[in-house]
Amino acid sequence: MEDKRYLTAISYFAEAIVQSPANPELYFQRGNAKLMLEDYNSAIDDYSRAIVLDSSAAKYFINRGLTHTSAENYKTAIQDYNEAVRLDSTDGQIYFNRAYAYEMLNEYDTALSDYSMAINFDSSNSKYFVNRGNLHSFLGNSNEAISDFSKAIELDPNSAEAFYQSGGALYRLRRYKQSIDRFSKAIALDPKYARAYDARGEARR
């Protein structure tokens, strides 16, 4: 049903483009529909066309960057995010997106810096803290990870992922009782969270 909706949108924007071929927003919106259908190359073509028509809109670069990220073209995605930052240097989402791309390229220090920039511009987004916490945890910075996960939980107490990741960081510090509590809260929020059940079982051994 969702695919049909996006296909209908693509058809609509195609007809609109025939009538207004110099309107960048039409290419942008058609690109969005193609992105949802995971038609990455075609979406990139539409975003590129929008950029040719109007290179001052950060969102065109952001979404082309997202599409490159989805296609695992991380270096190219970063180039788009760099341009988006040049156009709008206070949008936390751009830094967050770029941080993920750097993380996928194993450029962890740069990724941490960008996650921190995202938080600097928008400290109300729990996902920013979860992702930075995950990277801290991966790098063995368990105390920093726990701090980030705690903030994510404060911002979104219904985030099963934040409780689960917090439990993992506590487990690595051998704080087993607290980790079990975190895993249990993740399960309460999402009873189908298989990894949380496995982790809680391991912590109880």
Q: Could you characterize what this model shows?
A:
The chain is mainly alpha-helical and 205 residues long. Helices cover 80% and strands 0% of the residues. The relative contact order is 0.06.
Task: Spell out the key features of this protein.
205 residues; mainly alpha; 80% helix; elongated
Write a short abstract of this structure.
By secondary structure, the protein is an all-alpha fold. Helices cover 80% and strands 0% of the residues.
Biggest sheet overview: none
Sheet-strand content, in percent, reads: under 5%
In angstroms, what is the radius of gyration?
20 Å
Number of E strands: 0
User: What is the arithmetic mean of pLDDT?
Assistant: 96
What global shape is seen? elongated
Helix content: over 70%
Low-confidence segments? none
Which oligomeric form is depicted?
single chain
Q: Which class do the helix and strand fractions yield?
A: mainly alpha
Compute the separation of the termini in Å: 45 Å
The number of helical elements comes to 12
Following the backbone from N to C, one meets helices and strands in this order, namely HHHHHHHHHHHH
Question: What's the helix and strand layout?
Answer:
Blueprint lengths: L1 H18 L4 H13 L3 H14 L4 H13 L3 H14 L4 H13 L3 H14 L4 H13 L3 H14 L4 H13 L3 H14 L4 H10 L2
Helix pairs in contact: 1-2, 2-3, 3-4, 4-5, 5-6, 6-7, 7-8, 8-9, 8-10, 9-10, 10-11, 10-12, 11-12
